Amino acid sequence: MGNVPEGDSLHRAARRLQVLVGQRIAADAPHPRAQAERVAERIDGRTLESVQAHGKNLILRFEGGVVVRSHLRMSGRWSIRPRGEARAGKPWLVLGGERVEGVLWNGPVLELHTRALARLGPDILERPPNIDAMLERMRHADQTRWFGETLLDQSLVAGIGNMWLAEALWEVERSPWRRLRDVPDPDRRRSLEAAAELMRDSVDTDRARRHRVYRRVGQPCPRCRTKIRSWGQGDDNRMAYWCPGCQAGDDPRRS
């Protein structure tokens, strides 16, 4: 199973799709479920004016004020390929340009509005990221939630997912298993800055990073050699990965 798309995946997709900006798009929706939304109908023949990412969302703006929001959920992906190249399967959306086409696979959220963005916090991949605004939102959040769970709350910080949460907290030696009230502002800031730095590097280099703790359960920590652990966290039971040796926190089994 590949990594679930996080904010860096969307920012890389936005960069790749820039090649279509300014071109009149021939749009098609081969997947039957995508046809029901009639997105391709609305954008077919319109010029693509901009492509931007915000958190885990991709926003495509077309002439005439038409906007499309794409969210990849757990397994979606955007790719760029030569126009007309043979493909297997039925993508959700195809944006045909003069020489290349953008293809959306397994991306079931396609909407002709951006209302969902109003609920999102600042994007961790803004340059520079608005760390102060994120911290302010955290001060007004539920202080009894786990720190790891809080960083995944898209209404507080947009773009961080399980993988970058695990890797960022490992970098700064902070545990996901601390109540938010027990994590002082400097530690919150360091964690956010680490996530921003790691994710920016992913976008800029387009290169996979060797995981330190993510999906390495039972393997030795690269720093202290303690065995990596995992445990479901929060109402959604999102899996947290951490080293109990150098990321000391509460024991989730007893909390």
Q: Can you count the beta strands?
A: 10
Determine the N-to-C terminus distance. 30 Å
Structural class: alpha+beta
Tell me the series of helices and strands, N- to C-terminal.
HEHHEEEEEEEHHHHEE
Domain count: the total is: 2
CATH fold-level topology of the largest domain: Helicase, Ruva Protein, domain 3
| 3D shape | elongated
Determine and state the CATH class of the largest domain.
Mainly Alpha
Total helical elements: 7
Percent of residues in beta strands?
Answer: 15-25%
Q: Report mean pLDDT, rounded to a whole number.
A: 93
Strand order of the largest sheet: 1-6-7-5
Main sheet summary: 4 strands, antiparallel
Uncertain stretches of 5 or more adjacent residues: none
Q: What is the level-2 CATH architecture name of the largest domain?
A: Orthogonal Bundle
Briefly characterize the structure.
The protein has 255 residues and is α+β, with helices and mostly antiparallel strands.
Topology of this structure?
Layout: H1 7-17, E1 26-28, H2 32-37, H3 39-43, E2 48-54, E3 57-62, E4 66-71, E5 77-82, E6 93-96, E7 100-105, E8 109-111, H4 131-139, H5 147-151, H6 162-171, H7 185-205, E9 229-233, E10 238-242
Antiparallel strand pairs: 1-6, 2-3, 3-4, 4-8, 5-7, 6-7, 9-10
Helix pairs in contact: 1-7, 6-7
Q: Can you offer a commentary on this structure?
A:
This protein is of the alpha+beta class and 255 residues long. The chain is 26% helix and 20% strand. It folds into 2 domains: 7-118, MutM-like, N-terminal (N-terminal domain of MutM-like DNA repair proteins, Alpha-Beta Barrel), CATH 3.20.190.10; 122-254, Helicase, Ruva Protein, domain 3 (Orthogonal Bundle). The chain has helices spanning 7-17, 32-37, 39-43, 131-139, 147-151, 162-171, 185-205; strands at residues 26-28, 48-54, 57-62, 66-71, 77-82, 93-96, 100-105, 109-111, 229-233, 238-242. Strands 1-6-7-5 form a 4-stranded antiparallel β-sheet. It is elongated.
